[in-house]
Design brief:
This protein has 28 helices and eight strands. It is α/β, with parallel strands linked by helices. It has three domains: 3-134, no CATH class; 143-270, 3-Layer(aba) Sandwich (Rossmann fold), CATH 3.40.50; 435-618, Serine Threonine Protein Phosphatase 5, Tetratricopeptide repeat (Alpha Horseshoe). Strands 3, 4, 5, 6, 7 and 8 form a six-stranded mixed β-sheet that branches. Helix 2 packs antiparallel against helix 3 and helix 12 runs antiparallel to helix 13 (371-381). It is elongated.
């Protein structure tokens, strides 16, 4: 008798089928029911291990023993005429069918009833946790020498010139930022409250300041009236207020005057502010404010509108340093965005134009402070980290309150392998600009890099409280939840990322989501998305390479990974998403192309040290 026929006669094959189907059903039910009763995470895993261990003994038992009317007997002791193996086989067939029906019923209920409810509950719990995290974060006592400049109200007849009142507020903020020992909340945080009915005391609390400046701007032709008032947040008392009627050509002098009066009322000594502002064309000044307004909004259409405004300003006044600096900022950031989106067209021209406009601004004003952060940013875009840090050092020395310079200096530190310094710099930037979602997003990423996942989750939730639709933060949250062992929530979040409408600045979010699906055993689901994800990116985009590697098809992806721009290569350099690839030569070649060749070993040593420290703390 063949082995196969003997296995059938002894019902070993049926026992294997019944055991596997029953075990699968038991595992699925346990995975659903046990968490409802607060069972520890190790219990479902233990059940799976025990069932796996029991499989072979069950088959051996079925081979050795037979069930008879007299009970269990060794198969060799049962005479053929006494065997009831055929009847047992029919019973086992019915049991297998019954268990299969139960399994299919459970699968249908889980797929169409329980899973949507679990996902909805997880989403609700996530939103609740984000709200609680944001509302419960403690704020340190505000320094008495701290102020926020809110967006001035536009009272002009032309309601479309909102950028002008915003620009006046921003310029006043920049003047105040140069006052020694005065902490000034950054523009992003101050302007967050524009159009929101929030009490002054609450604004001051969220921004960590003791005083608030608010006001209005009324423009008519070449004349402007600015009303400004300084409010003490603690009691809402108006410390000082005044009106200023000026010609637009004197606008710089008005800003200096207002800043000086505020500083005086804060009992501070005003820093050295140049009194040599030359007269400027009111129209050129208006266009620079318009350009800055659209530049801050980001995105291709806004970049185009900003460029048009800056170039019109320079046609009117070719020697206007602020217009040259604005055009340099526009070209630098637009080049970075296009590189990060995998679109390389015109980036070389943008980078060259940014440097040219910086040179023109410095030729007009050798001490013009606004160009040094842009110089550093350009070096960052090109992967020259040490040079970038030197430029940011100068920018921070000239203006310690400039949160963006500190933010960008953190990127330079990270590119040099100095993650501790990068995090310290981001903390400084966050204190200056606590409601900047871009700074908080960078903080989230760098905390992930450092393995501080609890802190990263709090930072990420603050980003999403400010911008619930910010897809990059959602991708980061999926990685954080997975790293914290909250696998179900991570999968739900990853699916939300991948199903979100197409947006600009997705960059690494899809890759984060694919990584989570792969690590949680949903490789097939991830692979099915390739037809949806790849068309989002140009054929030679580095993101296509990232996607192919995360989908387990690295041979098709490494060439494109090698095109990763330096700013995004920071993720290759530090992120746990890429831990499995770190020893591949193609991975290290990609980093070398992005400017990390000599610093990569520093990063490896830093990662090893930080992970060792985290292990010791646990």
């Amino acid at each position: 008798m063949s082995l196969l026929n003997e296995l059938k006669r002894r019902n070993v094959i049926r026992m294997a089928g019944l055991y596997l189907v029953g075990a699968w059903l038991l595992v699925q039910v346990a995975g659903t029911v046990l968490p409802m009763f607060g069972a520890p995470d190790w219990l479902p895993r233990s059940i799976v291990i025990l069932l796996a261990i029991g499989f072979i003994p069950a088959l051996i038992f079925s081979w050795v023993f037979e069930l008879t009317p007299q009970g269990l007997k060794r198969d060799e002791d049962v005479r053929p005429e006494e065997s009831i193996a055929p009847q047992t086989a029919r019973r086992m067939n019915r049991m297998i069918i019954a268990v299969l029906v139960l399994a299919l019923g459970y699968f249908a209920i889980d797929k169409f009833v329980l899973t949507p409810r679990r996902d909805a509950a997880l989403v609700a719990a996530t939103k609740k946790s984000m709200t609680v995290t944001t509302s419960q974060e403690s704020k340190p006592a505000a320094s008495p020498k701290s102020v926020a400049v809110l967006a001035f109200a536009n009272l002009s007849d032309d309601k479309g010139s909102e950028y002008f009142s915003d620009g006046i507020s921003e310029e006043l903020l920049n003047v105040l930022a140069k006052v020694p020992k005065l902490k000034v909340a950054a523009r992003t945080s101050s302007f967050y409250f524009k159009g929101r009915n929030v009490p002054i005391a609450e604004i001051a609390k969220q921004l960590g300041v003791a005083y608030v400046v608010e006001g209005s701007v009324r423009k008519s032709g070449t004349k402007v009236r600015i009303t400004a008032q300084l409010i003490k947040a603690e009691d809402g008392f108006h410390v000082w207020s005044d009106d200023f009627d000026r010609e637009l050509k004197d606008i710089f002098a008005v800003q200096d005057e207002i800043a000086g009066l505020i500083a005086k009322n804060l009992q501070l000594k005003m820093g050295v502010v140049s009194a040599s502002h030359r007269e400027v064309s009111p129209e050129a000044y208006r266009l620079v404010l318009e350009g800055r307004y659209f530049w801050n909004l980001r995105g291709e259409q806004n970049f185009d509108r900003a460029e048009a405004a800056f170039r019109q300003a320079l046609q009117i006044d070719p020697d206007f340093a602020e217009a040259h600096a604005g055009l340099a900022d526009l070209c630098a950031v637009r080049a970075s965005w296009r590189m990060n989106e995998g679109r390389g067209e015109n980036t070389a021209d943008d980078l060259a134009n940014a440097r040219l406009e910086i040179q023109r601004a410095l030729a007009l004003d050798p001490d013009f402070p606004g160009v040094f952060p842009t110089l550093g940013y350009l070096s960052t875009v090109e992967g020259r980290w040490t040079e970038a840090k030197a430029q940011f050092d100068r920018a921070v020395t000239l203006n310690p309150n400039y949160a963006t310079a500190r933010h960008w200096r953190a990127l330079a530190f990270a590119g040099m392998g100095r993650l501790d310094n990068a995090l310290a710099e981001l903390e400084q930037a966050e204190r200056l600009d606590p409601l900047s979602f871009t700074i908080l997003n960078s903080m989230t990423r760098h905390l992930i890099f450092a393995g501080r996942f609890d802190d990263a989750l709090r930072a990420c939730d603050r980003v999403l409280a400010l911008r619930p639709d910010f897809i990059q933060a959602l991708g980061s949250r999926a990685v954080i939840l997975l790293s914290l062992g909250r696998r179900d929530e991570a999968v739900v979040t990853a699916r939300a990322v991948l199903s979100a409408p197409d947006t600009t600045a997705r960059w690494n979010s899809d890759v984060d989501a694919l990584y989570v699906l792969r690590e949680t055993g949903h490789q097939a689901e991830a692979a099915e998305l390739i037809g949806k994800l790849l068309p989002r990116w140009p054929q030679d985009s580095y993101v296509r390479g990232w996607i192919m590697v995360q989908l387990g098809r690295p041979d098709e992806g490494w060439t494109n990974v090698g095109r990763t721009p330096p700013a995004m290569a920071l993720l290759l350099y530090w992120s746990p998403v890429w831990d499995a690839s770190r020893d591949r030569p193609e991975f290290q070649q990609a980093l070398a192309k992005a400017g990390f060749a000599h610093e990569y070993q520093v990063a490896r040593e830093t990662l090893a040290r930080m992970r060792k420290e985290r292990g010791a703390k646990k």
